[in-house]
Amino acid sequence: MPKLKLPAPPLPEKLNPLPKRPGAPKATPRETAAEAGVSVVDWVDERTSISGGARWMMFRKVPKGTNWFYTLGSATMFAFLSQTVTGVFLAMYYRPDAAGGAYESVRYISNEVFLGEFVRGMHKWGSSVMVILIFLHMARTFFFGAYKYPRELNWVIGVALLILTMAMSFTGYLLPFDQRSYWATIVGVNINGTGPLVGPYLSDFLRAGPEFGATTLARFYAIHMLLIPGILAALIGAHLYLVAKLGTTAPPWIKPQEPVTREEQA
Amino acid sequence: MPDRHQTKSKYTSDQRIPGAFEGETVNRRRFMTASAHTAGGVATMAFVLPSLAFAFGPIFEEHEQPWQDVGAVEEFDAKSYVPKTITIATGVGEAGKSTVYMRRFDPSVDKEPKDRYNDFIALSTRCMHLGCPVRFVPAAERFICPCHGGVYNFRGEVDGGPPVRPLDRFYTRARDGRVEVGPRFSVNREIKRFSPRDPGQALDGIGQYLYPSRPSIRKLPNT
C-alpha cells in the first residue's frame, strides 16, 4: 500500500528522531494512532490524488524579499470566511419581513440570542474590515507592480471581487431594516437610478417596482446571501488558482541578480 | 465507369472528422455531439429564461396607484400646507406610507394651466436630490431636506442645494366634498407634467431623454 510521504520538518540534525533499531519493541499505541491517521489520509489520497494539488498550492517557491504585506490577500480571504460563517448563523434567526418582522428579528438577535450581539457585531464590523483590507491589498498590488504581465487577469478578477464586495455592503445595509438602513437604501437605489438610459430600469430592478415595496427586502436578502456570495466564492477560487499558477512577485526594491555563468563558478 | 466514391472529398479531408466516410459532412459522431449540445442548451434555457423573467418581471408590471381619500375639502386653504399620509406601497406596513403636503390651487401663486386634476396641489415629500423626506417649514415658507441641504420654495421649485427638479406632485380631485389623491407625476422647471421619474433624474433639457419614463409607473394619459 503506498504510504503518503509527509514533508519532514526542517529540524537540526540532532533533534531528528533516530531510525528504529532492529529488535526494538513493537509500535507504541501512540505510534499506532498516528499510523491510523496517515492510513485514512492515504486512503483518500489514493482515490483522489489530492495531495499533489495540496502540495502544489501549499509548498510554492516565493521570491526573495517576501514580507508581511503579502499577507493582506489572505487577511481579506479570512475576513470573507468570517463574514460567511457569521452570515450563515445570522440567517438562522433573521426574517426578511418588511412589515416589521425584519427589524424585530434583528432586535431579537441583538438582545435575546446567546452571543447574538457578538455574532452580529462580527458580521457588521467585519464587513468594514473586509473593505479596508481589500483596498490595502489592492494598494500593495499596485505599488509593488504585481498587476503587470502575466498577472493582468488576476487584477481584473480582483476588481470584480471589489465591486461584488461593495454590492454585498450595499445589499446587507438594508437588512436590519431600521430608519438608517431604509433611507440609506432609498438614497443608494436613487444613486443607481442617475445612470443615464439604463439607470431608471436598474433602480426598478433593485426595488422590484417603482416604489420601495413588499418584495424589495426579500430581493436584497436573496442577492445578499445567495447570489453574490456564490459568485464571490467562485471568483476567489479563480483568484487563488492564478496566484498559485503564476507565483508572486518580488518587492520592487529587490534588484534582479546577475545570472551566474559556468565560467565564474569554475 | 469511374468509382465516384474513390475521389477525395474536399469537405472530409479539410475537417478531419474521425470515422467519416468520404464526402460525409454530418457523420454520426458530429450529429450526436450537436444533439447533446442542443439538448443541454434547451434544458439550461428551460430554467434560466423563466428565472430571469421572474427576477426582471417587476420592471414591466404597472404599479397600482389607487385614488385615496385624504380629507374634507374644507381642511385645505391656499395659504399654507396641510400634511396628509397616503399609502404608496402595500404590504410593508409603515415603510409603505408617505407624507404629502396639500393646499388649494392659488391663481396668484400657481402659474401652471388649470385643469380638473389641480384644484388642490399635492406635493410629494420625496427630495429630488436622492429621495430623503423633505419637511415644510412654515416660518420660512420653504421645504427643507435634512440629508444634503436641498431647499424648495412654496411651489416646490428648487431654491437651492443639489436637487435637480421641483418636488414631485400627485393628481388630486374633489368628490362629494372629499379630496382624493391619485397617481404621482414628476414636473420640470415649468411645472409641466411628466411620467414619474426617480429622484436625481433631471427633466430639463436632455434630461427627459437621458432618463426615460418606465413601464412600471406612468402619469395619467393626456394630462
Helix-strand sequence of chain B: HHEEEEEEEEEEEH
Work out the strand percent of chain B.
Answer: 15-25%
Instruction: Write the CATH fold name of the domain at 68-246 in chain A.
Output: Cytochrome Bc1 Complex, Chain C
Q: Determine the mean pLDDT of chain A.
A: 91
- Looking at the overall shape, the CATH architecture of the domain at 68-246 in chain A is Up-down Bundle
Helix content of chain A: 55-70%
Helices and strands of chain A, in order, run as HHHHHHHHHH
Query: Which residues of chain B sit in consecutive blocks of at least 5 with pLDDT less than 50?
Result: none
Morphology call of chain A? extended
Largest β-sheet summary of chain B = 7 strands, antiparallel
CATH superfamily of the largest domain in chain B: Rieske [2Fe-2S] iron-sulphur domain
Helix content of chain B: 10-25%
Q: Number of DSSP strands of chain B?
A: 11
Structural class of chain A: mainly alpha
Under the CATH scheme, the architecture of the largest domain in chain B is 3-layer Sandwich
Could you tell me the CATH topology label of the largest domain in chain B.
Rieske Iron-sulfur Protein
Quaternary organisation: heterodimer
Spans where pLDDT lies below 50 across 5 or more residues of chain A: none
N- to C-terminal distance of chain B: 85 Å
